[in-house]
Amino acid sequence: MRTLARVAAVSTFVAVAPGCAVQLAGEPECWRTLPTPSDYRVEEAGRAGTVNDQDRYFICHATIVGRADVALSEMAVRKAADPEVRSFAQRAIADIDRTGNRLSYVVATYDGVDLPDRLDAAHEAMIARLGALSGPAFDQAYLRSQAEDAENALRLYRQEMLSGGEPKLQNFAASTVPALEQTLQMSQSVEARSKASELQTPATGAKDR
Predict the structure, then answer these.
(1) Does the predicted model carry a pTM greater than 0.70?
(2) In Å, how far are 9, 83, 141, 192, 193 from 58, measured between CA atoms?
(3) pLDDT tens digits, one per residue of 43-85
(4) CB burial class (10 A; 0-12, 13-18, 19+) of residue 180?
(5) Cα separation of 23 and 6, whole Å?
(6) What is the pLDDT of residues 135-145, one digit of tens each?
(7) Cα–Cα dist 32/23, whole Å
(8) How confident is the model at residue 197 (pLDDT cuts 50, 70, 90)?
């Protein structure tokens, strides 16, 4: 029987000793379960179409990150001070919804594999933190969250391409990576322009006076 390591749900995953459970109240069980290297080495045995531990980990994390980013982007559409940030958020919602629908369609073909029913603690805390911000501070925090999630998602999707046991999920991951790369580039570009605009605004005001 393969041993599973538990992880704390923070922006980077920190594994603890196998067999030691980290009790994080309210978090989905699948968010805390990280496949061990031994799980990855059985990938060839899963090529026939078996959903392995890596696949379940991927489904859970991809779904939760997508739902959290939609919630943050919906908030940005309402709260962002910069019109370009609102435009980015609207596009993000459409892209994530499209990706989420594709993943849900694939997962629906597997018996005994369910989507998580809630977010992880880290994303819930992030949503609460951004909800308390406004103006340029909100814009920068939102864009930074999107860039970080895109970076983490790219690692997750590439890991699935290499170590997943179910070809349909691997193909889904491979076809989604280019869109994630574009999202990362866009979020970083919009963040840089937004920061530059924020820095220029006080100087312009001082000059006018």
Answers:
(1) yes
(2) 14, 33, 26, 30, 33
(3) 344 444 578 889 999 999 999 999 999 999 999 999 999 999 9
(4) buried
(5) 9
(6) 999 999 999 99
(7) 9
(8) confident
Q: Give the separation between CA 199 and CA 193, rounded to whole angstroms.
A: 10
Sign of the four-CA dihedral 124, 128, 134, 138: negative
Cα–Cα distance, 72 to 76 (Å, whole number)? 6
Distances (CA, A) of 116 to 9, 39, 62, 80, 130: 14, 21, 10, 29, 23
For the chain, give the DSSP string. Answer: ----EEEE-SSS-EE--TT-----TT--GGGGEE--HHHHTTGGGGTTT---HHHHHHHHHHHHHHHHHHHHHHHHHHH-SSHHHHHHHHHHHHHHHHHHHHHHHHHTTSTT----SS--HHHHHHHHHHHT--HHHHHHHHHHHHHHHHHHHHHHHHHHHHH-S-HHHHHHHHHHHHHHHHHHHHHHHHHHHHHHHHHHHHHHHHHH-
206 pLDDT band, cuts 50/70/90, is: very low
Please identify which residue in the block is written with the tokens 């322009």: 193
Q: What is the pLDDT of residues 14-35, one digit of tens each?
A: 333 233 233 345 667 777 665 5
Which tokens hold the place of 176? 């989604």
